[in-house]
Design goal:
heterodimer, A: about 130 residues, mainly beta, five-stranded mixed beta sheet, elongated, B: mainly beta, four-stranded antiparallel beta sheet, three-stranded antiparallel beta sheet, about 35% strand
């Protein structure tokens, strides 16, 4: 899995769809591969369950999460160490055919997005018995 | 959305302050401090402290207040070690952050909540320092 660089780290308008000027940040991720699946974990603090999207288009996997600006209404900053914005990151899967696209699943737990990409049956690692 | 524009201009303002020499602000979170904190004033004068701690369970974080020092401690558990890692960017391990609270707030009434990986501490302002209108009597 390689990363597809975003046009800029903080893009204002994404190609094709977005018209609102919003900030995007790149979440930290862990990617783990087991014999039967690829797991992706992305830190997306502030994102609610209904504001996260996972899309596989060809071999490009995009994860995206929105932070509600409502949580910050009326608040005046006194001291800040992190900026607030939405999260987005894209990866190119080395060989998308390896995965069973229909069985990809995702869930958000405590602000961490978990994406499970099961390998298709014929791609699973098998131990070959030696006679 | 005007609120986003407000946030954007706020961030620009903060960016400007960050670049100003002798600034009291520290570099944004990528400096590696965990967890990064934001401190706000609510319209009612109360203090709101937010910390991004994605992946931390409620029972793995502790908030203590001693005098005017507020400390957030906890642990972010290491991820599953089965399989092989292609990428490992998410920090894990024990963490602690301490902030000094202003004098005008009532830390005995601190409320803490953890939602979507963001810890929010809400500390009301002391009643005594809230502005009051005094009735003038004859």
């Amino acid at each position: 899995m390689t990363e597809q660089p975003l046009p800029t780290k903080e893009k204002t308008v994404a190609p094709g769809e977005r018209t609102r000027a919003e900030r995007y940040y790149v979440p930290d991720v862990d990617i783990r591969e087991t014999d039967d699946a690829l797991w992706l974990y992305a830190d997306m603090p502030g994102v609610a369950n209904d504001s996260v999207r996972v899309d596989l288009d060809g071999d490009v996997l995009q994860i995206e999460g929105d932070v509600s600006p409502r949580d910050y209404e009326g608040l005046a900053p006194v001291y800040t160490e992190y900026n607030i914005g939405n999260w987005v990151r894209r990866f190119t899967l080395g060989d998308a055919q390896r995965f069973d696209a229909d069985k990809i699943s995702a869930r958000l737990v405590n602000g961490v997005l978990h994406v499970h990409l099961p390998k298709s049956e014929r791609q699973k690692a098998r131990r070959i018995p030696v006679n | 959305m005007t609120l986003w524009n407000d946030l954007l201009s706020l961030q620009n303002e903060l960016q400007r302050l960050l670049q100003a020499p002798g600034s009291f602000f520290r570099e944004p979170s990528s400096a590696g401090v965990f967890p990064p904190l934001n401190v706000f004033r609510a319209p009612d004068g109360g203090l709101i402290i937010r910390a991004e701690i994605p992946g931390v369970e409620r029972h793995d974080v502790t908030v203590t207040i001693e005098g005017r020092r507020l400390t957030i401690t906890g642990e972010r558990k290491a991820a599953d070690l089965n399989g092989s890692y292609h990428r490992r960017e998410r920090p894990h391990g024990k963490f602690a952050r301490t902030v000094t609270l202003p004098e005008d707030i009532d830390s005995a009434r601190t409320n803490a909540s953890l939602r979507n990986g963001v810890l929010t501490l809400t500390i009301p302002q002391h009643e005594a320092v809230k502005p009051r209108r005094i009735e003038v009597t004859s």
